[in-house]
């Protein structure tokens, strides 16, 4: 992993279109500004991992279970 | 063209039925081409089936059938990603998970939107504070 040391107000450029600005450093918290094209999705890692896990779980739905849930739904109608 | 799927066997489909996800689904960036298949006529469940990986399919449901007041404020990049042409017909679904024990859950944070005119789709991540796993019970 590339490690760079930056001070408040300094920037890091990734490729020609992405810029990360160190806006504020406060104790163990860093406030970052990110400039990127709209097509580049920027998320907090925790959220991204949650979304990936949720998508993965969705692809493993068992047919039998789905059918039994759908039957339940049908019975309620 | 023929497409192999684990759930539906071999399907004979027209090119025009394909839906391109330029960014893939979240965590599945390499798979960009899908088909939308009804689970059964009238069923609340539809499958977003990969045309490249037979075993890859996401169950999607129409959120309005299960959730009240789910209003999506689409991010500015949506139109850019989906492209536009007239008449643009957008279809919105949310990914459903069904844990082995427990109730099904819906991912309201990252809905799937497809434009039936450009045949492009995207899994959005909304800025709104919404659950990734909302348990659901019955239809409204």
Tally of DSSP β-strands of chain A: 3
Biggest sheet of chain B, open or closed, and with what strands and sense? 9 strands, antiparallel
Number of strands of chain B: 11
Number of helical segments of chain A?
2
Number of helices of chain B: 1
Task: Tell me the span between the first and last alpha carbons of chain A.
Answer: 56 Å
Low-confidence stretches of chain A: none
Order of helices and strands of chain A: EEEHH
Based on the model shown, name its key terms:
heterodimer, A: alpha+beta, 3-stranded antiparallel sheet, 36% helix, elongated, B: 140 residues, 9-stranded antiparallel sheet, two-stranded antiparallel sheet, 1 helix, 4% helix, globular
Concise structural overview:
The complex is a heterodimer of chains A (77) and B (140). Chain A has 77 residues and is an alpha+beta fold.
SSE map:
The complex is a heterodimer of chains A (77) and B (140).
Chain A: E1 11-14, E2 18-26, E3 29-35, H1 45-58, H2 63-76
Antiparallel strand pairs in A: 1-2, 2-3
Chain B: E1 2-5, E2 9-12, E3 19-20, E4 33-38, E5 45-50, E6 57-61, H1 77-82, E7 90-97, E8 105-106, E9 112-115, E10 120-123, E11 134-135
Antiparallel strand pairs in B: 1-2, 3-4, 4-5, 5-6, 6-7, 7-8, 7-9, 8-11, 9-10
Q: Can you describe this structure?
A:
The complex is a heterodimer of chains A (77) and B (140). In chain A, 36% of the residues lie in helices and 26% in strands. The model of chain A has no long low-confidence stretch (mean pLDDT 91). Chain B is mainly beta. Chain B is built from one helix and eleven strands. In chain B, the strands form two sheets. In chain B, strands 3, 4, 5, 6, 7, 8, 9, 10 and 11 form a nine-stranded antiparallel sheet that branches. The interface between A and B is medium-sized, with 26 and 36 residues.
């Amino acid at each position: 992993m590339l490690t760079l040391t930056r001070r408040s107000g300094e920037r890091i450029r990734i490729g020609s279109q992405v810029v990360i600005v160190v806006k504020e450093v406060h104790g163990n918290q860093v406030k970052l500004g990110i400039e990127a094209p709209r097509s580049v999705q920027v998320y907090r890692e925790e959220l991204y991992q949650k979304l990936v896990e949720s998508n993965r779980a969705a692809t493993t739905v068992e047919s039998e279970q789905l059918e039994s849930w759908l039957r339940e739904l049908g019975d309620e109608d | 063209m023929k497409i192999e799927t684990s759930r539906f066997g071999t399907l004979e489909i027209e090119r025009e039925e394909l839906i391109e996800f330029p960014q893939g689904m979240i965590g599945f960036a390499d798979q960009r081409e899908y088909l939308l298949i009804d689970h059964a006529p009238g069923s609340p469940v539809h499958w977003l089936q990969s045309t490249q990986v037979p075993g890859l399919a996401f169950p999607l449901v129409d959120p309005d059938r299960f959730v009240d007041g789910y209003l999506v404020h689409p991010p500015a990049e949506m139109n850019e990603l989906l492209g536009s042409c007239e008449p643009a017909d957008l279809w919105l679904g949310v990914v459903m998970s069904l844990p082995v024990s427990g109730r099904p859950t819906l991912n309201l944070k990252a809905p799937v939107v497809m434009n039936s005119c450009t045949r492009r789709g995207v899994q959005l991540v909304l800025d709104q504070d919404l659950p990734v796993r909302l348990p659901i019970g019955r239809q409204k």
